[in-house]
Design goal:
seven-stranded antiparallel β-sheet, 3 domains, 704 residues, Alkaline Phosphatase, subunit A, 36% helix, 20% strand, alpha+beta, disordered C terminus
């Protein structure tokens, strides 16, 4: 491998004069070679080769007296440097960058020259180590670290820094090869770089950023002094060096920090993954660009990469897109503003089932923790104590906000709520509630939008006393049919949206006559449904941001779920009638306790568990505790109209699904494996096992 070792030179005043003279001769030769290159191109219509221009050096020495004072290999590297610069411009042009032409170098821009292959050596003279440079001098050098014994010195570059200091950088070839990275790395780490915390890794280690505020203040003071000096005067030159020393101090401290940090990760781990940030693009941002530049993330990546190769460690540069929002364990994307520096992921339940397939039974079961045949009476009035009642008795402020008349105060759902906004403006009787629902349909206002629910509920939160405990239930209806997402969301997946009348007409036809729906119309319904989910997701995110701004999110138990899903013709019907297929009963469920949670839970859970999770009464299963992977959960739904005496049941299990229908005299078993239904006497078991069918997840996560 090829390495660079940098050391400081300690030249005397005569040495400095001679080093400056050699440096200036190399600069003049570079400019002359550039002139000859342009002249050759104008005459021959093509660029000369490097060999052509290097072959002119002996003739130049005949009339250029100072050229013979410089070692020949140094003169050759000057020509090589010109062609290296041309290659760099060509590469930029191929990548689409606008490039100009090479220009002559003024004295201050040419700071180094290189001895290649020969003409230099490290020696001991007068009890000190010196760098012997042919045709120049023996210059004392400070070897603060030894060059390995098995290293071969290939070249040395002598450079003058803006501070006036001289350094020598050796190009070193190592005879040994670096160790091979392990095939199966055991110690792996991912690194998230930042500004407030420079690095935060997956082992939980947080490395603070380097505090260079004092150095920056000093730099600003010295720059102000420089601005008051007359350009070109001795005082100006003296102050310019002071400014350069401030820059050098900042650079050294920063690189020392980055070297130590990258060395730690390269030596301690078998695999290191780090964000491959677009630093150039971030620097173009109108804000925070100074801190971005000071962080030097690109330098950190370069140092880390070569150190990983040296130590035999895997290095992986990760595309950073979405890594700040996406949970590493479950993949759920969580939008957050820039000032939120800590990711708190909910517990994601992948096998959550609603207690029923429709709102009139699913919501009371959700709010009470009881099965629908206990939670509501035959008229769908709430018939048991709800979470709101329990918490209200315990001293909590309680409120509910929604716009669904079937779970309104007309059916007793306001019990236990201090404030209950069900969007019933005309009255509380159920007939009036249904009349208002019909009137709203005529006005093409089916439900209150999520932004309205957010506004009302946040206004109630702001009315509470500081520190008052509360229970808040927001029931969003945006994903309920007919699907009419706002225009900016309607075309996320569909080519076009539908007007209110057309959306309602298509939705109603899908319910009444599902066979009439074409493939294109079905896909349009699915796309509009997904757009409603995306809209709802955005406003739930805004609501959580509002809680965070009020300092409430970190101390709150947050649960996000649904009372049912929707079908799109998979079983010959649309919407959510009273069947128990997965498309209707398999619902999303996210739980974020105040302490935060991380990962997914694959064990079967029910929306009945939400009440126990909130109240902790001990009567059910809490989603915050350990859940048996072999658990069975039930769903049930009462039939409609002529089938009102029939009750359907489903049992969900990790390895099997069971279905049954019951009435007063007959029990019917169904097997999706044999596709047959068999009547069974009432004194027999009523469930049959079938293989689990894969669940189609239609819901799309946010695109960003």
């Amino acid at each position: 491998m090829y390495y660079a070792y940098k050391y400081r030179l300690k030249p005397s005043d005569p040495h400095r004069e001679e080093l400056d003279r050699h440096r200036d001769i190399c600069r003049q030769l570079y400019n002359h070679t550039l002139y000859r290159l342009n002249e050759y191109q104008e005459k021959h219509g093509e660029l000369p080769s490097m060999t052509t221009l290097r072959s002119e050096l002996p003739d130049l020495k005949k009339w250029w007296d100072g050229l013979s004072d410089v070692y020949s290999k140094v003169l050759q590297t000057v020509v090589e440097r010109l062609f290296d610069n041309l290659e760099g411009l060509s590469a930029l042009k191929k990548n689409g960058y606008g490039v100009g032409q090479l220009k002559w170098k003024p004295p201050r821009e040419s700071r180094s020259f290189t001895y290649s292959q020969s003409g230099f050596m490290l020696d001991k003279k007068g009890g000190q180590t010196v760098l012997s440079l042919s045709k120049l001098a023996d210059i004392p050098i400070r070897l603060h670290r030894a060059i390995p014994d098995d290293a071969t010195l290939k070249q040395v570059t002598v450079k003058k820094e803006p501070t006036g200091e001289w350094f020598a950088t050796f190009g070193v070839q190592m005879d040994r090869e670096p160790p091979e990275p392990p095939e199966n790395p055991e110690k792996c780490v991912g690194i998230d770089v930042g500004i407030l915390k420079y690095a935060h890794d997956t082992d939980g280690t947080a490395v603070g950023s380097l505090d260079l505020s004092d150095e920056r203040d000093r730099l600003e003071r010295e720059q102000r002094k420089l601005s008051r000096k007359q350009h070109g005067s001795n005082n100006y030159e003296k102050q310019r060096r002071c400014v350069a020393e401030c820059h050098a101090d900042l650079r050294r401290k920063r690189r020392d920090f980055l070297h130590k940090l990258s060395n730690y990760y390269a030596r301690e781990y078998d695999l290191v993954a780090v964000e491959d940030l677009n630093v150039k693009g971030m620097m173009e941002s109108p804000s925070n660009s100074r801190n971005t530049a000071s962080a030097a993330w690109r330098t950190f990546l370069l140092l880390l990469e070569y150190k990983c190769v040296r130590e035999g460690t895997h290095f992986v540069a990760v595309n950073p897109r979405g890594t700040t929002k996406e949970c590493a364990s479950c993949g759920v994307s969580t939008d957050k503003p820039l000032w939120v520096r800590e990711h708190s992921c909910p517990a994601c339940f992948t096998n959550a089932y609603s207690a029923s397939s429709h709102t009139r039974e699913a919501v009371p079961a959700l709010l009470s923790g009881k099965y629908p045949d206990v939670a509501v009476d035959s008229g769908y009035h709430l018939a048991t104590e709800s979470v709101a009642s329990t918490l209200s008795d315990a001293g909590y402020a309680t409120a509910g906000f929604h716009s669904n008349p079937f779970v309104s105060r007309a059916y007793g759902f306001d019990e236990g709520f201090d404030h209950f906004d069900d969007d019933l403006h005309l009255g509380q009787h159920k007939l009036i509630a249904l009349a208002q629902r019909a009137l709203d349909k005529v006005r093409n206002r089916h439900y209150a939008r999520a932004e309205e629910i957010n506004e009302r509920s946040l206004e109630w939160l702001d009315s509470l006393d500081n520190g008052e405990s509360f229970f808040l239930w927001n029931h969003y209806m945006d994903t309920h049919g007919p699907y009419e997402p706002p225009s900016e969301y309607a075309t996320l997946w569909a080519d076009h949206g539908l007007s209110g009348r057309d959306a309602q007409s298509l939705y109603q036809r899908a319910i009444d006559d599902p066979e009439s729906i074409t493939d294109e119309e079905r896909q349009l319904l699915v796309d509009l449904y997904d757009a409603e989910i995306r809209y709802n997701d955005a406003y739930i995110g805004e609501f959580l941001d509002a809680l965070r701004e009020r300092g409430l999110l970190a101390e709150s138990l947050v649960i996000v779920t649904a009372d049912h899903g929707d079908a799109f013709g998979e079983h010959g019907y649309y919407e959510h009638p009273r069947y128990l297929h997965d498309e209707i009963t398999h619902v999303p469920l996210f739980v974020r306790p105040p302490s935060g949670a991380n990962g997914t839970v694959d064990a079967p859970v029910s929306t009945l568990d939400v009440a126990e999770t909130i109240t902790g009464s001990g009567d059910g299963v809490s989603l915050l505790g350990d859940i048996d992977d072999d658990r069975r959960v039930f769903s049930q739904a009462r039939g409609e109209d002529d089938d009102s005496r029939i009750r359907r049941h489903q049992l969900a299990h990790p390895t099997a699904k069971h279905f049954a229908c019951l009435n007063d005299t007959l029990r019917l078993m169904h097997s999706s494996t044999t596709r047959r239904s068999t009547p069974i006497p009432t004194n027999h078991g009523c469930f049959a096992s079938s293989s689990t069918q894969p669940v189609t997840q239609r819901r799309r996560l946010p695109a960003d």
